[in-house]
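Quick look at the format.
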Amino acid sequence: MNTKLLRKSVLGIAGLAFAGGMVAGPATANAAPTVESVKPVAATVLADKADKPDKGKLIPHGVQGKQSRIDLTDEQVANVKAIIAATKKAGMDERAAVVAIATALQESKLENLGHLGERNDHDSQGLFQQRPSSGWGTVEQITDPEYSTMAFLKGLKQVDGWQDMPLTKAAQTVQVSAYPFHYAQWETQAADLVAEHWNS
């Protein structure tokens, strides 16, 4: 075969491939996203951030001590949502929901507990381990998540300056627990749950 002809053929094919790449390449490989395709994503991210409560508002005094965390079942998440709904119904803010959820995490791990027999602390039941004998309500009432939350929040409202107290002090003033500092360990998870579910 003629080497001159072969060289022309190879150069012609290479040139065609190069020209095709120049024409097709930049149009697809280096195409910048259009402004329209970027705006909705940015708007969505901003909307998501705007929907979440400010962490500084949820934990205004910082956490005290080592923090605990548990994985939640669907039932426990439903109880979180019930506490948040009751907090809104009571006309209270996200911080009140953090205090309530941290309290319920300590008292029942967010499980709506019935009477535990020999393991029961007196007659304590429900999310907040409230006692009918102490005037919290009937068994049916204190095992209703909305009622028990409203009862807890009513007590919290009566604590003068609760918003300016560390969480554990505010919770303890309502609950009068034998373990007053145990509420503090749940503040971070409670704040995370309020941030996640306040607007859901």
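Next, a different chain entirely:
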Amino acid sequence: MKHTTLAMMVTLALTTTAVAANDWKDTTKDAWIDGKAETTLLLNGNLNSFKINTDVKDGVVTLTGSVESKVDKALAEELIENLDGVSRVDNKLTVMNANAADKDSNGSAFKDAKIATVVKTRLLFESEVSGTSIDVDAKDGVVTLKGEVDSDAERDLAVAIAKNTHDVSRVVNKLDVIK
């Protein structure tokens, strides 16, 4: 009887530990996604990230706060839904000036803002590139990289990252190698 009771207690302890470990893993993953979402919004020059809040639960990102236009609301959602680990975006952002004309009716401003943010974020997350030293601009799908890098290899990697980003048609390399 003692062995049965002991076995049940050990099984219960291991089960509780496994459940707690999975909860911890899920919480950590959500925190990582939340950090990436906040960083992505912060790096976007078209959005006021201080007016946008992100909450993550089980890979679902909820956006709350306010933006200036419908284009900004769509841009925030698009940027977040393309992050690794995000299963869905619940966009509860409020458009502050619903009567204002959006920045660009054909969507090119939206697309360019998204491209620039995605490239900048990828540069920042790449450990072999000093992404903080590189400015990224996008116009009609053409990305321009400006700034200083430490080597030819770093410059080539930054250009490759930009070229391999969805919707980029061409990359203009204005990066200076400082040796």
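The CA atoms of residues 70 and 166 lie 22 Å apart.

See the schema section for token definitions.
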